[in-house]
Every structure is written in structure tokens, then in C-alpha cells.
TrEMBL record, chain A:
<comment type="subunit">
    <text>Homohexamer.</text>
</comment>
<protein>
    <submittedName>
        <fullName>Uncharacterized protein</fullName>
    </submittedName>
</protein>
<dbReference type="InterPro" id="IPR028979">
    <property type="entry name" value="Ser_kin/Pase_Hpr-like_N_sf"/>
</dbReference>
UniProtKB/TrEMBL annotation, chain B:
<feature type="domain" description="CBS">
    <location>
        <begin position="90"/>
        <end position="150"/>
    </location>
</feature>
<dbReference type="Pfam" id="PF02518">
    <property type="entry name" value="HATPase_c"/>
</dbReference>
<dbReference type="InterPro" id="IPR036890">
    <property type="entry name" value="HATPase_C_sf"/>
</dbReference>
<dbReference type="InterPro" id="IPR046342">
    <property type="entry name" value="CBS_dom_sf"/>
</dbReference>
<keyword id="KW-0129">CBS domain</keyword>
<dbReference type="InterPro" id="IPR003594">
    <property type="entry name" value="HATPase_dom"/>
</dbReference>
<protein>
    <submittedName>
        <fullName>CBS domain-containing protein</fullName>
    </submittedName>
</protein>
<dbReference type="Pfam" id="PF00571">
    <property type="entry name" value="CBS"/>
</dbReference>
<feature type="domain" description="CBS">
    <location>
        <begin position="28"/>
        <end position="84"/>
    </location>
</feature>
Amino acid sequence: MKISELESLGFTCLQDQFEDIDLVGGYTSDLLSDVMANLKEGQVLITIQAHKNTIAVASLSGASAVVFCHGRPAADDVLDAAAAEGIAVFNTPDNQFDATVKVSRALRA
Amino acid sequence: MSDVPLPLDQSALRIQELAYGLKVRDVMTRKIFAVTRTCTMRDVQTIMKNNGISGVPVVDDAHVVGIISMNDIMNAFVNGHMDDGVARHMVTDVQTLSDEVPLTFAMSAFSKYSFRRFPVVNQKNELVGIITPRNINLALIRELSRQLDELEDNSGHPEQGGSKPVFHQIYRLTRYDFEHAGRASAELKKQLKARGIPPKVIRRAAIASYELEINVVAHSHGGTFAVLVDDERVRITANDFGPGIPDVDAAMTEGFSTANDWIRSQGFGAGMGLPNAKRVSDEFEIQSGIEMGTMVKAIVYLKQGEQR
């Protein structure tokens, strides 16, 4: 599934300057070191950490997109950083478990 | 703290970085005048006068058990104790330095304590040297001129020296400044990308860099962070001013963390930082001294040799 198709899961796109490529999978974690160690290139990161460090780590690890759960808003500097790195940013009212299940099902569909 | 390191700041940081490559054993005075417990204060005073020194360690079977300073001699003189054994007048709580630690630890020690000299001991805790601020100044001057010579040598033959730095930048890191942490890593990533380094290698170098940068910001009183890239490798050196890591082995264990809740709220403190940095590095070295600081050096080879 393409990155843009995350919107069909009820996620809101906050930062749309990205190349709309296929997602290869997802990774769910709030510990940024854990993300750096385990997220694979081209996955979507599902997290509640809505701040700039998350974008830095997503960029280092090669994440294509980031989803902030619990409807957490993203500050402008977070979105600017994501735009500069070409990383898509979404948020969703879902908690991480529900968001992860949705993404996982959509990837397998 | 400005976003861009100023040139002036750079030169001050460079002086500091000179010291990182040196260890206490490289700069200490090896010729030591030490006495045993049975010597008298007068003996010590004679040694001081004849050799122009102001502090004499007292040893027992090569282990430091005390130290006599000029001050102790003065007191003994005034009170008529010059013929007493040194054991009665020496300071027994002696702060020593290990000969293996970076010179920066010695600098921290001089600024932390009011002592004007530190006896230096080896791994067996035997006295092997003595270090004073003068040793440090001389070493820095020597190192500066060595580097200047190197620069002059290289400028004449730009085609020589296959591993000349193509990027060398030093950053100052401030405690809890998560806003700017990551600056060095972002710059490093850009530099490597521009040089056409494979993405896998860039990722490893960037992870090592970012983890070490965050460590200084989250766990230390602040410090310096140097990134050097040449044709062969990326070298990252993180040096902080303390508090030091009580148990380095524990800190290198995945899941061990001393992070507080605030650091955790920033998404860090999983106890994976150092293990992560080590895992992605081809060479990794860490040294820490309580109250003196921590030095971490990580090297990532740019040539696709050994796959990690």
C-alpha cells in the first residue's frame, strides 16, 4: 500500500511533502533508541512521541512516514523538519494498538 | 548557544580536542622523587630544594600512602617538627590519577580540586609518575606544533596523505538541550550523502553519532562532540565534563538506564543508547572517570569491508 493510503484508515495527513511510495511495513515504539535499532528502511513509524527528535530518528532510520497516535498535534517545527526530510506525517485519534492493527491489516490486504 | 559554531568557538574547542588524543601517561613526569614513611620532613625539604619541586608522594612498596606539600614543610618548620617522620605530617587522603585516562580527565581534576599535582598510578595502583598543570601546558604546545608541522607538510603535497580529513567539525553540547541535539548527526549525514557513501553505512554512522550526541545531552553536564570524516572512516568523539559513569559495563548492557522521567518523556532512556552505538560501530572505545567525565570514541569504516 502507498503512503497516501494511510488516509483511508482514518488518519489525517499533516505533512504532505513526500514521495508517495509503497510502505514495506510498520514499526510501533516510543523509545527512540529502540526505533533506531529496529525500524527498517521504508516502514511507517507508529508512536505517541510527537516531537522533533522523532523526526530526526525517523530520518536516520529511513522511515517513510510517521503516525502520531491519540490525536496528538504536531508543532510547526516538527512538520517543517519532516518536510525538509520528505517524511510524511499523519495523526489519528486511535491508540497505538488500534492504529497498528489497522496498518497491519491494510498491508496484508 | 548559537546554532552555528563560531570560528572563534571552533578554535577554543580545537584546543580542547588536542587533549583528547593524549593520555595522562603521555604527558606525565616519569622521574619521580618519592619518599618512604621513615624519611624525615627535613629529608623531604632537601629533596624539594635540590630538585625544584613542591610536592613529594610518600610510598609504601610503590603504593602511594600520602603526600607532602611545601605547605606541610612550612608548618613542620614553624612548629619545630623537621626531624619527625613524614607519616605524622603527610596528607593521607591522596587523590591519584590513572595513567590510562584521557588528559581531559586530568584537566577536570585540576579544576575540581585545589591540588597542584596528582600522583599517577598504573593498573596495579603503583606510582608511575606525577602530573602538574605545567605538564599539560607543555603537552598542548607540543601537540599544537606537531599538528602545525603536519599541516605544512600536507600543504606542500596535497596529493599525499590518503586519509586527510575532508570534514572536521566540533560542536558544543549543553545539558538537556534536546532542541539542538542531533545537529552534528544531521550535518554528518549530509556530508556522507554528498560524498556518495552507501546508505547502509550512512545509517550506521548517523545512529552512532545521534546516540552519542543524545547521551551527552541527557546524561552529562555538557561537553564537546567532534566529527571527523576522511577517505577511510568516520570518527566520532564525545567528551563530557562529568559526572562520569559509575559502572561502564552496566551502561553497556541493553536495558540499563539511569534516565529520569523527563528524559524518558523525550523518547530517550530506553537503556539502548551505548549498546546501539557500539553495535553499529567498527571500533568503539569508552572511558569514564567519576567526577571527571566520559570519553566515547566510535569509528565507522566507509569502505564496504566487514559487513555488520
